[in-house]
Design a protein that fits this description.
The chain is of the alpha+beta class. Helices cover 25% and strands 24% of the residues. It contains 17 helices and 38 strands. The strands form twelve sheets. A nine-stranded antiparallel sheet has the order 8-9-10-11-19-15-14-13-17. Strands 20-33-34-38-35-36 form a six-stranded mixed sheet. Strands 6-12-18-16 form a four-stranded antiparallel sheet, with no helix packed on it. The model has no long low-confidence stretch (mean pLDDT 97).
């Protein structure tokens, strides 16, 4: 689990150069192939073969795309099909062993056993660099598979173009119709030594019209190739131990820009120098937080920090150009444009984490969202931004949370009123996911939407975030409108059953209702037991609705201790028993704030106990160490916040709720030059309870700190004990 990849990337880089371990199709016999879900990141630890190394990957997602420009070095008889996992020698794939595999920040190395080739990978922001150590052979090959991809299917490749400029340089592009339906990626590929020959194989079906290109033999040493399904190969003579290197640059704009990216970021052929640069950049980023804790916790913490700094990804060439949603070429003026916004996940903790540790990049990310809005034909902020597309995945309009949080915390330096206007326009887009019903009725009818309840709850939170931004900007009419909308969660609250429940268009609650079930109950990636606690912006009102603090506490206790029957897992791809605690599902994001809700009751020590339980159970320094998909860094951000002892229950507020730190000491080196230190005196696996919290010498009694308390610098001290302070 986790759906992360082990390959080479730099912080927020456009290139993610990583191995693929199989070639499963998205569909089999016209139906979804459930096994493909295991390959969202291209790499599955249990596999025994590698099919090649491609340049784009998602980190931690539960759906996928990408896997562009797969390269595989081989020697001996040329094979252009990938073969099978059971018989790797039937194709260009190779067996490998984890014993001969190295994964570091910015560097990956593996021995390809079948051809006795050592593969090494590193990268810059926009260029992947390969180094392949070959045996002596007059039949050494580099395969460029332009059909390969993740979540692949028969019609995914729309068009491919290759231009062989000379015997060391190849350029081209690939357009695909996947999660992003108009995604075009341009490339420039340079070899460290000339190839002696090259060719292609086309797998295109016969067309009614093919033009007059048949005058040429395009299969061998022909410099301009185009088609839907193409594979290229490049032949070399190699000496024993000879290293053949490749620089592979990407661009969203043009072949020329890809070549400029390459020449700007990697001028020569010193692989070790590029590797050292990548690791130096990572070391700088990872040293922004210095923790003292147990060895396992330290591995977990820096793994989380690494994963949190992978996404969103750079979507700007070195000259500032990028392709917009309008398919036009734009120039990012004074900011880096980003894509890969998995906002349903990341608004909760990752973007708030950036407002502390990456405020400069957070500012650019909000500017990227505003550029997205300006270029959108629907005049909407991003839902799930992906390579000049919105793939519209998941629910809510959580850009508004990220924008409000950044402005309220002083991160965004653009026009805040224009940003608020974009939030309002998005929240009033009536024909998107039931917003019209939500505005008219105060809820979304279950007979009109399969995710009616979760959408209503998420819109209610988002509207609260808009109201907070309006309040800051003294736009009282907007505040009044959206603070009223933020109470719409009450319309799905069924006092009789004690749960959030789907409501029909006639105003009655749906009769068939099981709060444990995840199917057909009006929720996305969750059930009513988890979603009934999703009012992060107003826990006090939720507690009142549930009958007061004592009953609310008992409900929380039941969530963390109940037993879910096996049928709960019948329709879930990403959640297993290892990913839950009682009925609490940590591997899916809607419940991420729930452990902190005890702070609003008379038993806040239970927040401390549950947070530490989650930290220990759901994060381990092993290959299967995540209790669910990392989701572009959200799971990792939860870990870091919680291990530091505080968490943003409701982004859009400047308040963090206190928990139980698992670090002994942490120093946050902030961009403004100040430091914020967390100290947990007598913290241990047994001493998980907080006896006293002191901020800069003053005791805290309300279980919270403010954003300014962190950014102003200072020291937060927790005094820990084995016994709860009741």
């Amino acid at each position: 689990m986790g759906h992360t990849y082990p390959g080479a990337t730099v912080p927020f880089g456009a290139v993610q150069l990583s191995p693929e371990t199989d070639t499963l199709s998205y569909e089999v016999n016209g139906k979804y192939n459930g096994d493909v879900y295991k390959y969202c990141a291209g790499y599955k630890y249990e596999d025994k073969t590698i099919t090649g190394f491609s340049h784009t990957h998602f980190s931690g997602t539960g759906h996928s795309d990408l896997g562009d420009f797969l390269i595989m070095p081989t020697q001996g008889k040329l094979q252009l099909n990938p073969g099978t996992a059971n018989n790797p020698k039937s194709g260009y794939r190779s067996a490998f062993s984890h014993a001969n595999e190295v994964a570091e920040a910015g560097y990956y190395k593996v021995k390809l056993d079948d051809d006795n080739i050592t593969a090494e990978l590193t990268s810059t922001a926009r260029v992947g660099m390969h180094q392949y150590t070959f045996p002596k052979s007059d039949q050494s090959h580099i395969i460029l598979d332009l059909m390969a991809g993740i979540y692949n299917y028969e019609e995914k490749n729309v068009w491919t173009y290759i231009r062989v400029v000379n015997d060391t340089l190849v350029t081209g592009y690939r357009q695909t119709n996947g999660w992003a339906r108009t995604r075009t990626v341009y490339f420039a590929m340079s070899f460290s030594k000339p190839f002696k020959s090259y060719g292609r194989k086309s797998y295109d079906p016969k067309q009614a019209y093919r033009g007059f290109w048949g005058k040429f033999n395009q299969d061998k040493n022909f410099p301009e190739i185009a088609g839907k399904k193409l594979k290229m190969y490049f032949d070399f003579d190699t000496q024993e131990g000879e290293k053949v290197k490749i620089k592979f640059a990407l661009s969203p704009v043009s072949q020329e820009n890809a070549l400029q990216n390459m020449r700007t970021e990697i001028a020569g052929w010193d692989f070790n120098k590029v590797k050292a640069q990548a690791q130096s950049v990572w070391n700088k980023e990872l040293n922004k937080i210095q923790v003292t804790t147990s060895n396992d916790n330290k591995i977990n913490f820096y793994t989380a920090l690494y994963h949190a700094f992978i996404n969103p990804t750079t979507y700007t060439d070195v000259n500032g150009e990028y392709k917009g949603l309008d398919q036009g070429i734009h120039k990012a003026d004074g900011f880096t444009n980003y894509t890969t916004f998995s906002l349903w996940d990341t608004y909760r903790a990752l973007h708030p984490f950036f407002n502390i540790m990456q405020p400069g990049r957070s500012n650019d990310m909000v500017k990227s969202m505003m550029a997205h809005y300006d270029q959108s034909s629907l005049h909407m902020l991003p839902i799930w931004s992906h390579y000049a597309n919105d793939n519209w995945c998941m629910s809510g309009y959580h850009s508004v949370s990220v924008i409000a949080d950044a402005i309220i915390k002083g991160t965004y330096n653009g026009d805040p009123n224009k940003a608020l206007d974009a939030c309002i326009a998005t929240a009033k887009h009536r024909d998107y996911e039931g917003i019209g019903y939500y505005m008219d009725l105060g809820y979304i009818p279950a007979d009109k939407s399969g995710v009616s309840v979760s959408n209503n709850l998420e819109y209610s939170y988002d509207d609260w975030a808009i109201a907070q931004l309006a309040k800051k900007l003294n736009r009282t009419d907007v505040y009044n409108e959206f603070i009223k909308r933020s109470k719409n969660w009450r319309n799905n609250w069924d006092k009789a059953s004690g749960f959030m429940r789907p409501k029909l268009a006639d105003g009655t609650f749906k009769k068939e209702f099981d709060p444990k079930d995840t199917e057909g109950q009006g929720f996305i990636e969750g059930n009513s037991w988890n979603y009934s606690f999703f009012v992060p912006h107003d826990p006090a009102s939720l507690i009142e609705a549930m009958g007061g603090k004592a009953k609310f506490t008992a409900r929380l206790d039941t969530l963390f201790t109940m037993h879910l029957p096996d049928e709960f897992f019948a329709h879930t791809e990403d959640i297993t028993r290892e990913g839950i605690i009682g009925g609490y599902v940590h591997g899916n994001e809607p419940a991420h704030h729930i452990a902190y809700l005890y702070n609003w009751t008379d038993q806040p020590w239970k927040t401390q106990a549950q947070v530490r339980h989650i930290l220990n159970m759901q994060y381990k320094p092993t290959a299967d160490g995540l209790g669910g998909n990392d989701d572009c860094g959200q799971m990792s951000a939860w870990y870091m916040f919680s291990s530091l002892g505080f968490y943003p229950v409701s982004p859009g507020s400047d308040i963090y709720s206190l928990g139980s730190p698992s670090v002994n000491n942490a120093v946050l080196n902030l961009e403004n030059g100040k430091t914020f230190t967390v100290e947990a005196i007598k913290q241990s696996d047994k001493n998980i309870y907080v006896q006293k919290v002191v901020l800069n010498g003053k005791e805290i009694t309300n279980h919270q700190i403010k954003h300014a308390d962190i950014t102003n610098g200072g020291k937060l001290t927790f005094y820990m004990s084995a016994k709860p302070k009741k």
